[in-house]
Design brief:
The protein is mostly helical and 402 residues long. 71% of the residues lie in helices and 1% in strands. The protein contains 16 helices and 2 strands. The longest helix is centred in the first third of the chain and has 40 residues. Keywords: Ammonia transport, Membrane, Transmembrane, Transmembrane helix, Transport.
């Protein structure tokens, strides 16, 4: 009997390890989506830099999260022996891998906003600092109950802040950190002339579309595998993810007047927004959530570029920052039983938790990038920016005619 129980336990542990490993691999693949989305959006002379940034950021983020960030968030380190770390079929190690791919998404989000005019190494070090300290501080606050914040929300409003897969913890935090960096960097040369916006056309729409598709497919690992164990898997999460994606596609196509850039970012806006409540919402609520996000992205991207002269190259603040905020609040609306959700969520707790994420992200980002600016400077020289980051930093162009 003991042998049977042991075999069942081993099977369960190995199944959970495989489950979350598949999720980690799917989210890892999403970083290729971040890369190609940026490559297709920036001008030709900055394509190599986009590719190098995403890969380099991932490597430095992994180190920062392994040695510091995961410790900050979950009070867990990896200084034990391999025999201890591999217990339970190494589930805890693979859980780290999964959460690390989330953490590494923060620099990937920031990269798209600051493209075409940022220095390489100062921004790389700053991104690593973000992953080591700023992001895990809020991650631990929400997903590990650090400092009693969630306990206070539950005692005060009847429910803790609910963010199943990171609308706020990952996306809003990344978007608001990016906004701080974008504001400190300033606009690209030639972006505004006589107060008027000058269009910088995307260099490669097929690459942009490829990036969007890779992200869209990987998102099902991002959301569904956030259950982290087999017994927590839910088809509701998968269908809600699908419906929010569809809502973002339809509304961005209409609001964006057939613009391919808006269309391919539309499903991403919907997916950002549904992360928080994907395990609670009714599919129709998820559809509405995604639809609103698609419109939000198109409207805000246009507004900040034209009126506020915030030069956010890929629109990461409206896409991740604002749609992430909307997702945190939407979980409190469409997650309620009154609107067909599963309940167990408080709108006020969602609002307060979301605002807390914005404050931590923007203030933390402002501090980190201000220090980086004072220490080494984070903006390319006028000449280097004019020549393009590819030649200025990496000494090679994206393509060769030879």
């Amino acid at each position: 009997m003991e042998n049977i129980s042991s075999a069942i336990q081993t099977l369960s542990e190995s199944a959970n390890t495989l489950f979350i490993l598949i999720g980690a691999i799917m989210v890892l693949a999403m970083h290729a989506g971040f890369a190609f989305l940026e490559v297709g959006t920036v001008r030709h002379r900055n394509q190599v830099n986009a590719l190098v940034k995403i890969m380099s950021d991932f490597g430095f983020s992994a180190l920062a999260y392994f040695f510091i960030g995961y410790w900050v968030a979950y009070d867990v380190n990896f200084f034990s022996s391999a025999s201890v770390l591999s217990e339970g079929n190494g589930y805890e190690l693979v859980k780290f891998f999964f959460l690390m791919t989330f953490a590494a998404a923060i620099p990937a989000i920031i990269s798209g906003g600051v493209a075409e005019r940022a220095k390489f190494y100062p921004m790389l070090i700053a991104a690593a600092a973000i992953v080591a300290f700023v992001y895990p501080f809020f991650e631990g606050l929400i997903w590990n109950g650090n400092f009693g914040f969630q306990d206070w929300l539950e005692a005060t409003f009847g429910a803790p802040f609910h963010d199943f897969a990171g609308s706020v913890v990952v996306h809003a935090v990344g978007g608001w950190i990016a906004l701080a960096a974008i504001m400190i960097l300033g606009v690209r040369q030639g972006r505004y002339r006589g107060g008027k916006l000058i269009a910088f056309a995307p260099s490669n729409i097929p690459f942009l579309a490829l990036g969007a598709w890779i992200l869209t497919v990987g998102w099902f690992g991002f959301n569904v595998m956030s259950a982290q164990t087999m017994d927590g898997i839910s088809g509701l999460v998968a269908v809600n993810t699908l419906m929010a994606m569809v809502g973002g596609i339809v509304t961005s196509l209409i609001a964006g007047k057939n613009d391919p850039g808006f269309l391919h970012n539309g499903p991403l806006a919907g997916l950002v927004a549904v992360c928080a409540g994907s395990d609670l919402m009714h599919p129709i609520g998820a559809l509405i959530t995604g639809g609103v996000a698609g419109v939000l992205f198109v409207w805000l991207f246009t507004l900040i570029q034209n009126r506020f002269k915030i030069d956010d190259v890929l629109g990461v603040w409206p896409l991740h920052g604002v749609c992430g905020v909307w997702g945190g609040i939407a979980a409190g609306i469409f997650g309620s039983e009154a609107l067909g959700g599963l309940g167990g969520v408080s709108l006020m707790a969602q609002i307060i938790g979301t605002v807390a994420g914005v404050v931590v992200a923007f203030v933390g980002g402002w501090i980190v990038y201000t220090l980086a600016e004072k220490a080494a400077g984070i903006r390319l020289s006028e000449e280097d920016e004019y020549n393009g980051a590819d030649l200025a930093i990496h000494k090679i162009g994206a393509t060769s005619e030879d």
